[in-house]
Design a protein that fits this description.
The chain has 269 residues and is an alpha+beta fold. It has two domains: 139 residues, Fructose-1,6-Bisphosphatase, subunit A, domain 1 (Fructose-1,6-Bisphosphatase, Chain A, domain 1); 115 residues, D-Maltodextrin-Binding Protein, domain 2 (3-Layer(aba) Sandwich). It contains seven helices and 14 strands. The strands form three sheets. It has a seven-stranded mixed beta sheet with strand order 3-4-5-6-7-8-9, with helices on both faces. The chain has a five-stranded mixed beta sheet with strand order 11-10-12-14-13, sandwiched between helices. Helix 1 runs antiparallel to helix 2 and helix 5 packs parallel to helix 6.
Length: 269
């Protein structure tokens, strides 16, 4: 994609995503109509309304593009030109009135991400990135943290919906991180976690079982802000739909990957 075309397109996407965020704000105090996709996997009428809005508006920008969106995706297949959309990442937070919710939109073209936008409507923070051009928060350039000591790192994680089935995979790494690092945060939105890693509020984020729409825009944000993204094994490149993701400021990546790898041997207090 040409530089000037990508710049213009990014601005248009930011405008659309901010307007999508206004739908979430408009629905914030309304009674929530909740249905379930799984035992604890919620969906609200707001998720559906925002996805419908994004589908309509983004189609006007690139009519030839396909969509991979959380509430309507039949599979995880990507075309040559695809919008990857999470209309409301952090639905459980939204249902409980917690502010860590985000609209996430990324553009995939010819096997790579070109644009990414993560908008947090409750804080009015719009994170954006363009391939090979950097990342921004509300148009101000951002970069990952400079922390190099794993003991001083602030780490975020999340838990897959299949918590019961995967509990023996979740607890050992969490135990290692809790006993090694400065602290652990659990935002409830991977898009927020990745955006916060990109701007240096967090040093590291890791999680199992995420979908392409959870990570696409945030992945590009972290990379363009100077960080590293892989699967838990550091030399195993991250791909959309991979079962594990490790995002960091780069300086801590190898040490964190080693810690996660070693978590098959839990710490005994």
């Amino acid at each position: 994609m040409k530089e000037d075309t990508a710049t213009t397109l990014l601005g248009q996407v930011q405008d659309i995503v901010r307007r999508a965020g206004n739908i979430i704000l408009d629905h914030w105090e309304r009674p929530k109509k909740i249905t379930y996709k799984g035992r604890v996997d919620l969906v609200t009428e707001t998720d559906v309304a925002v996805e419908s809005f994004l589908s309509k508006e983004l189609s006007t920008l690139l009519p030839e593009a396909t969509f991979l969106a959380e509430e309507s995706a039949a599979d995880n297949n990507l075309g040559q030109l695809t919008w990857i959309v999470d209309p409301l990442d952090g639905t459980t937070n939204f249902a409980h009135g917690l502010p860590a919710v985000a609209v996430s939109v990324a553009l995939w073209q010819e096997n790579s991400l070109q644009l990414g936008v993560v908008h947090l409507p409750k804080t009015m923070e719009c994170f954006s990135a363009k391939r090979d051009s950097g990342a921004w928060l509300n148009d101000t350039p951002i970069s990952v943290s400079r922390q190099s000591d794993l003991n001083q790192a602030l780490v975020a994680t999340g838990f897959p919906y299949a918590k019961r089935e995967r509990i023996l995979e979740i607890i050992p790494p969490l135990q290692k991180v809790l006993t090694t690092c400065r602290g652990v945060r659990r935002m409830g939105s991977a898009a927020v976690d990745l955006a916060y890693t990109a701007c240096g509020r967090l040093d590291i984020f890791y999680e199992l079982g995420l979908k392409p729409w959870d990570t696409a825009a945030g992945w590009l944000l972290v990379q363009e802000a100077g960080g590293s993204v892989s699967q838990f094994k550091p030399f195993e490149p991250y791909t959309l739909g991979a079962d594990s993701i490790l995002a960091s400021n780069g300086r801590l990546h190898q040490n964190m990957a080693d810690l996660l790898s070693d978590s098959q041997h839990p710490v005994v207090p």
